[in-house]
């Protein structure tokens, strides 16, 4: 049958968005991989059960693959112990198939910088999650440079959209707002902060999967216009038809609550993102692949609210 399959490791919001984008582009054979072998929603794709950290399994799961999308991740608190092994497993599967590997990455490896984020910044992260992300990206690019694997890395900022719950613009904003609770955010709401719509992230990754000139490089996928977080909340409240109360947590509050809350304890490492301007430059991508358009935030927010309403049974 030849190398006709697009394999997606991870069926969370990013994996599902990549699947939707592949379908939109007419890709017929899509194989989605997770630990359960089931999807949370109906989709006319192959679904395979597997543990990406097991090399023999990933080799079999990547059979006949043309492109492999790495959208999988362990629990947020388990990144240092589980993420590198999972990534190496996916690398082994893609290499055995001779497939391109497209990795959906974030921005933690850069650490705290006082300028817009570009792909050529050094990896200055000092926390364990940023160091883990840096290590994996470096391993992937080294594998490409040595000829073991063909790799491209796509990075996006904090994302939001259908299915996205564990995010700074996730359940504690959209879910809380629809439930009548105060929305809950971090840091300074009045500094610019780039937010990426999940479908725009997926569009960028699939473009990298279709463009051989993307290989061997890191790319910041395009996001819509950067606003302050307060301006983003204004757009969300406009869509909801009324404002909601806003609650913010300072670094000190997160430190105190983190003594008893593992997830908040982990967030201390990247709290700088919400204390100062956090702006992502995607001009390298635009120069290479042109302006494919991003989803305006008001449209993206409308789709996100619609998904949350359906998920909450409204």
UniProtKB/TrEMBL annotation:
Residue intervals passing through the bilayer: none
Coiled coil: none
NAD-dependent epimerase/dehydratase domain segment(s): 10-211
SUPFAM superfamilies: NAD(P)-binding Rossmann-fold domains
InterPro entries from the UniProt entry: Epimerase_deHydtase (IPR001509), NAD(P)-bd_dom_sf (IPR036291)
Origin: domain of life: Bacteria
UniProt-recorded name of the protein: NAD-dependent epimerase/dehydratase family protein
Cited Pfam families: Epimerase
């Amino acid at each position: 049958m030849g190398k006709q399959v697009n394999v997606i490791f991870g069926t969370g919001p990013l994996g599902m968005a990549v699947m939707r984008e592949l379908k939109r582009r007419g890709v017929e054979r899509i194989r989605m991989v997770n630990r359960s072998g089931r999807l949370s929603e109906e989709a006319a794709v192959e679904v395979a059960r597997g543990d990406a950290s097991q090399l023999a399994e990933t080799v079999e799961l990547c059979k006949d693959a043309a492109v492999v999308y790495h959208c999988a991740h362990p629990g947020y608190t388990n990144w240092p112990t589980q993420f590198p092994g999972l990534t190496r497993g996916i690398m082994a599967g893609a290499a055995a198939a001779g497939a391109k590997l497209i990795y959906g990455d974030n921005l933690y490896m850069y650490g705290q910088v006082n300028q817009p984020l570009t792909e050529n910044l050094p990896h200055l992260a000092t926390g364990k999650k940023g160091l883990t992300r840096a290590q994996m990206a470096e391993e992937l690019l080294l594998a490409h440079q040595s000829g073991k694997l063909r790799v491209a890395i796509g990075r996006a900022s904090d994302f939001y959209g259908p299915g996205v719950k564990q995010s700074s613009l996730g359940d504690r904003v959209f879910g809380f707002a629809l439930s009548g609770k105060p929305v809950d955010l971090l840091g300074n709401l009045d500094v610019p902060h780039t937010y990426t719509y999940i479908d725009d992230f997926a569009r960028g990754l699939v473009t990298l999967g279709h463009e051989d000139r993307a290989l061997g490089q890191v790319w910041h996928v395009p996001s819509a216009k950067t606003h302050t977080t307060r301006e983003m909340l204004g757009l969300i409240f406009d869509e909801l038809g009324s404002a909601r109360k806003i609650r913010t947590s300072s670094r000190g509050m997160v430190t105190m609550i983190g003594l008893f809350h593992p997830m908040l304890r982990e967030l201390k490492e990247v709290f700088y993102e919400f204390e100062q301007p956090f702006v992502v430059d995607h001009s390298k991508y635009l120069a290479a692949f042109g302006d494919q358009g991003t989803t305006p935030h008001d449209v993206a927010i409308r789709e996100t609210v619609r998904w949350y309403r359906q998920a909450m049974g409204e």
